[in-house]
User: What shape does this take?
Amino acid sequence: MDEAIIFNSSHLFGFFSVFNPDAIKDIKLYKGGIPARYGGRVSSVLDIFQKEGNSKEFHANGGIGAVASRLLLEGPIIKDKAAFLIGGRGSYAHLFLPLFDQDNTAYFYDLNTKINYNINDRNSIFLSGYFGRDVFGISESFVNTYGNALGNFRWNHLFSDKLFSNLSLIYSDYYYGLKLDFVGFNWNSGIQNFNVKYDLKNYVNDKLQINYGINNIYYQFNPGKIEPSNPTSGIVEEQLIQKYANEFAAYIDVEHDISENLSLGYGLRFSNFIRLGQDELNVYANDNPVFYNSDLKIYQEGTPIETINPGRKGSLATFNNFEPRFSLAYTLNDNTSFKTSYTRLAQYLHLLSNTSSPTPLDVWTPSGPFTKPQLLDQYAFGFFRNIKNGEYSLESEVFYKDIQNRIDYIDGANLIANDAIEQVILNGEARAYGLELLLRKNEGQFQGWLAYTLSKSEQRTPGRTIEEVGINNGAWYNTPYDKTHDISFYGSYDLNEKWSFNTNFVFQTGQPTNYPIGQFEFQGLTIPYYGLRNSERLPAYHRLDLSATMTPRKNKNRKWKAEWVFSIYNAYNRRNAASINFSRNQDTGANEAIRTSIFGIVPAVTYNFKF
Assistant: This one.
């Protein structure tokens, strides 16, 4: 957002987006052909820019609702020369939970800001920021807090009518923490990065545009600081070893219209990643931090043969990658077009996710001595067709992704507050492929779209030697993100000037997870054991949202315009499972499955206004 990295893009586990719609100017999603100016991701890129503020007159808009409220203000600081924008949101539905004998809590708040100043016809500066926090708690014993904070200073300079530059100084901070009173400690961690970007656009002529630039990102990873939460806690304060890295990239990107029907995009990105020194580093025999026990046929944490202190000045590992990009678009006629692309991407940060966890406490670790960067080769082919003079449109795309150096954790791995994460991860590979279809109705009282994706996302972690079994015996298995079927429907109907109606329906194949397939008794304890990794699934996720908007007719002649929105989230109260955990009932002694469901039906009334 405004060129800064967002590590978690949702509020309240997906109920809201961290991107405030009132503050957004432009959104671009790149999935297939990703331009060379983007890097560091092997999935996709969502590029969002906030509004710049109105430099001519003051405006405000907002909403007051039963679940959340929002307010956005924008206006001139110096008319036609400088402007500001500030917007805030917050939810408070948790305040009503005590009425239903619930002492749990779940809420968020965020703030968007932006200032712009036109120095002259050739120079403009922008200062933007964002701060957001989510809080999720179960009574007072478990409280999870997480969120993003970012700031960006940009200077736009126009060298000539054909050459434009953008210099950005960016700061981003992702915080995530836990308060666990029942075990007596608090855990705080996060990722900070400082990014310098310099981009240039050169409009050579009407048919040729060349983009090029450099950027440098410095990362600081705080795996966690553990502190006692009360005076009687037996926990000793401990700061886990912090990690540091630097990522540099240079790129050139060409947009070339060969003819009226054929356009090409091609470019090259060079990326360099240095895992910088740290206070302590474990050394292992044969550089192998994971030990394979051939008798038990399991992986175990390796034992360091020594611990060295390389210090902050040196480097632990260096990686260099060339990332070519190519895309082609061909317009057959006014209604039909095709596109195809090839993309090579490198991702130097790795995400380890416990698929059964309902919290966003995922573990990020940088590439280094024991972990290579992920490398993606992606191929895509798309088709677009206008139907009935544009009243309808059909888009389709097929894709295939091949990823090297995909990591996963060994069975029984401890991911949280682990000071030697290399002891619980193995390197493998991944692949994803699928078909996407999107049918839109673009005109008339009723408009909307229907989207369907059929896809597969899987990975393989084979053994490093002939005797090792790997994960799932070296066979392909589902990634945590695999969704065989993904269906979305959106519809809007304008009944008249006063009433309009909207509906939204989503269906997704359940998330892969692990269930116990048996148990055994050991010294009076019942111990479950599990089958193959990610071989089970949570129940399918689906829900229906409905809303009706009433706009008073008197809005036409007033500066103050308002509307009432009556909505129902999850209209048929589907208790979608965020996770399913297994335990023994204390009263009956029987095994039972316990489903954790975050949201059921949520009716709401919102009063929206603007002036």
Observations:
- The longest strand covers residues 185-205.
